[in-house]
Amino acid sequence: MRFDEGYSGKVFIMSRDTHEDADAIIYGMPMDWTVSFRPGSRFGPNRIREASIGLEEYSPYLDRHLEEVHYFDAGDIPLPFGNAERSLGMIKEYVQKIVDQGKFPLGLGGEHLVSWPIFEVMFDKYPDLAVIHIDAHADLRVEYEGEVLSHSTPIRKVCENYGAENVYSFGIRSGMREEFQYAKESGMYMARYEVAKPLQEILPTLKDRPVYVTIDIDVLDPAFAPGTGTAEAGGITSKELLEAIHAIAKSDVRVVGADLVEVAPVYDHSEKTPIAASKFIREILLGWVKK
Questions:
Q1: What domains are defined for the chain?
Q2: Which alpha helices (DSSP H) does the chain contain, by range?
């Protein structure tokens, strides 16, 4: 399915009817083929859309209304079940079309491996790109039990293919000893445990650079987001993640795309995880999408 063919399913609140005048395209990547613990994130995109119906269209944080942003929800990419390699190729082709039309790609995951083909597209477009990675996990493995296509590998792939000095990770509190050693030796930036404070310190150094932001919902403590495949105790609050989103919005960096991944609604009957995710998406639309 192409994003310009329209979509008849659930859409994020206040989505435009057509893509032509949209500054941003929301799209889903319903893939959880390589998860190492609990599957279910392929159902995340639609639950985020459904939860958005309960949102107010106005953000008191940014004093903006969703009617001020032109965005189109194109629905989910119809990824082939179980085929990781082909799925990644389809995501890459899809995002390339969005970028070629000068629109802001805003992806909903899906497991974190879905970000890798997006990184490829964005670095081709912006060779001086910086990646802001907000996550509980380092995602710096070379492989997971022999599989190089794994949701534990996308940040390592960025470091090795596009330069570790272009990667800025925040909130990290889980990984192999070797991953933390690699982070120390490679030249990437890693802030452990916290997000908002270290991010605010780094943002001035990224002034005027194109930036892609990838957010794994498991950066939140399970008390705030139990609906994720690999929950990790000791995380940040929803308030701190909102502070980080707003810090980016008010900075001089140029956000050129973003994704939010790893919402697995089956593990959260309270629905607090998709509810939080939908609010983060609202704030991203209002704070990061520029004409």
A1: 3-288 (3.40.800.10)
A2: 44-52, 84-100, 115-125, 154-158, 177-186, 196-202, 238-249, 272-288
The answer for residues whose C-beta is within 8 angstroms of residue 40's C-beta and 6 or more apart is 32, 229, 264, 265, 266, 267
pLDDT at 256: 98
Q: What is the number of H-type helices and E-type strands within the chain? A: 8, 10
Among 23, 40, 22, which residue's Cα sits nearest to residue 31? 40
- Give the per-residue pLDDT at 3: 60
In the chain, the amino acid numbered 32 is: D
One-letter amino acid of 47: R
Percent of the chain whose pLDDT exceeds 90: 90
Asked if the bond preceding 110 is cis, omega within 30° of 0, the reply is yes
pLDDT tens digits for range 120-178:
999 999 999 999 999 999 999 988 777 777 888 999 999 999 999 999 999 999 999 99
- Sign of the dihedral through C-alpha 280, 266, 145, 179: positive
140 in Cβ contact with 179 (< 8 Å): yes
Q: How far is CA 175 from CA 137, 144, 152, in A?
A: 6, 12, 9
* Sequence-separated contacts (24+) of 161-165 with Cβ below 8 Å: 161/120, 161/123, 162/119, 162/123, 162/129, 163/187, 164/188
